[in-house]
Structures are given as C-alpha cells and as structure tokens.
Amino acid sequence: MDVLLLCGYFENKYQQEIGTKTKTWVENAANTFQQRLIKGFKKQDINLTVVSAPFIGPWPTVYQDVFFKGFEAGESDEKITYVGFNNIWGYRNISRTTALKKQVRTFIKNSHSEKKAVIVYSPHTPFLEAAVYAKSIDPSIHIHMVVPDLPQYMNLSKKAHPIYDFFKRIDIKKFYQLNRHVDSYMLLTEHMAEKMEVGDRPYIVVEAIIDEVPEQLGNGHPRGKVIAYAGKLVESFGVKRLVEAFEMIDDPEAQLQICGGGELRSYIEDMAQKDSRILYHGVVTAEKAHEILMNADVLVNPRLNDDEYTKYSFPSKNIEYLMTGNAVVAYMLDGMPEVYRAYINTPANDSIEALSEAIVNALGCWKKKTFPWERVSAKKVSEDICSLFI
Questions:
Q1: Looking at residue 90, what DSSP letter applies?
Q2: Please, are residues 106 and 347 in contact by the beta-carbon 8 Å criterion?
Q3: Domains and CATH numbers, the chain
Q4: pLDDT of residue 24
C-alpha cells in the first residue's frame, strides 16, 4: 500500500537554523510528535512518502524568511520532501496549498498500488485541502487525519490581532467543509470526536506517542532543588502562575529554570533580573530543552483545568516530563486519561499557594514510578492507525 504523509515535520539538523530565524518559539513538541509518528509508520508494511511544509511561523511577525526555499543545512537525510512556499502572512496558506497539491499529483502519478492513503498531520487547512484534492483525482484514496489540537484552540495567546481572528474564523469554516471528506481519525481525547464531527467514521484515541519504551527512568544525578519548565511562555498556560508560586518558596537553594518563547518573555526576563534563583535560557533546541529537564528535580506544567479547551487537550510536555523519571507537578485536565493521576503530583486546588505547596512536596517526597509506556509506543500507535485503512 502506498501512503502519503502530509505534515510540518523538520529534521533535527535544521533545528538550529529554524531557532535562529524564529522570533517567538519553535514548535518542538509538534515536531517530536511527528518524528515519532514517522518512525512508527516506517515499521509498518507500507510504502511511505513524507512531504512537509515545515511548521515555521509567518513573515514578518514570527519568521525572518519571506520565502521558504528549503534549509541551508542541506539535503534531507531522512528522504523528506520539503515544499517551498511564500511565507507572507495572509498569503502563505494559499502558497503552501499550491505546493502540496503539486506533490499530491506526483504521488498519485508515481503510485503503482491499487490501495492508497493520505495521512494529514494536524487540522491545518493546506494539508487537508491537498488531501481532498488527491481524493478528487482518485476517489478510492483513504484520508486519515491525526488531530493533536482543534483548529479553534491552536492560538491561545492573548495578543491575537482582530484581523487574525477574522481570517481564522474563515479558515475554520473552510476546514470543517473539507473535514467532511476525511475517512478516519486519530484523536488525542475522546471529547474531540464531537467537535470534529466524526459521526460514525472510525477513529482511535491516542494521547501521545513515544519512540520506544524507556529502559531506565531518571539520570541518576544527586537530588537537588531545581524546578524546570519548557514550553510556550503564554499566560493561558499558567507560566506566570508558576513564577508566582516559585516566589513563595522561601529557600535560597531552590532554582527555577525556564526555556521557551512567547508573550511572557519580557516578564520572565524581568523576574530573572530581580530573583537570581530564576534562570531563563531563552528559546533553545529540543536537545537543550531535554538536557535542562533531565538535570532538574521537579518539572512543572502549570496549565489549569479551567477552560473548555482542556477537554480537547493532552499536553505533550506531560509525556516528555514523565519520560525523564523526575517528579512531575501538573493538573489533571479533562482530556487526560485517569491513568495519569497516579504518576503526577496534583495541586490541592487552583490557587497559587496550592501550586507552590505541590512543588515543595514534590521536591521532598518524590519516588520513581514506572508508567505503562506500551500504550503510547510509536509501533503500537502506527499499527492502530494503519488498521483503519489497510
């Protein structure tokens, strides 16, 4: 069977280049998810073609390149086809769609299999529009969509411009029209099925993906008092609350390390100037973020379960945190399976005082627990996806 994956993945060797050209944050979490998904598909009995319109931000607000023509670091080592596109905000989705449609035509022309499928990673309209275009050429093509986030909840920044909101509403309307042509889904939470208007179409629910089952948890470093957060610095994710909770910890040996970018960057930089215990690393590569997390003692995801979108969300950082073997402080969101409750330290309530207390407790009472990783292994997830169209 010939399978085309339309996605926004970029290889690790391009991370530094993207980080240098990005003014806000790099979509490391989404990239890791796609990387693991691709590894899983490569273990299946399919002929996989991967085409990527990389998840870089638009010019001029986020990314410095007006045109994306490929990466300066050279040709792909993983045989990924990267499409070029005009990156100007407002036009880039049209350009991305045009480039992807060209690759779709090439895929269909070169395919000698009677059975074909197009997998779309994420509810990104250019990807789905290209997939529906493929189906218009060959109606037998099966479209499968991986849904890590709902399109209406992809930008939770408080600084979204009214013009952005206007065009976003148009984009979402178009997306749901195209969504009628999708044949099957992988959803992150059960609640997504209703919002995605899945109906009686087949789907699976998978909250995360890991490369392989970790053989050993933790890195064996002596226990200390380092608290860490890696991710987007936006208020809706609770980052400001985390800093406020840390400030309540009266311990000169405690340290809060933060990496990432976003609307709260200036605030974090100011707090790091006022409190020498706060260390801000800025926007870093996925490898550097992993190093920071591994060398910490308590990892905090301060996102509250206080909005509707949490029913449709499973924070990938929870998986990355748990994989380090370090203590994890986080809230149980409505979209999280109950199995996770036994492996995280949950604040008693939504107050900043309770968050601070949970962090202090995790510093002093942490014990390693072995999570049932098999449920989210790349091999199993990819098998379950392929079972929907093979």
A1: T
A2: no
A3: 2-210+378-386 (3.40.50.2000), 226-364 (3.40.50.2000)
A4: 84
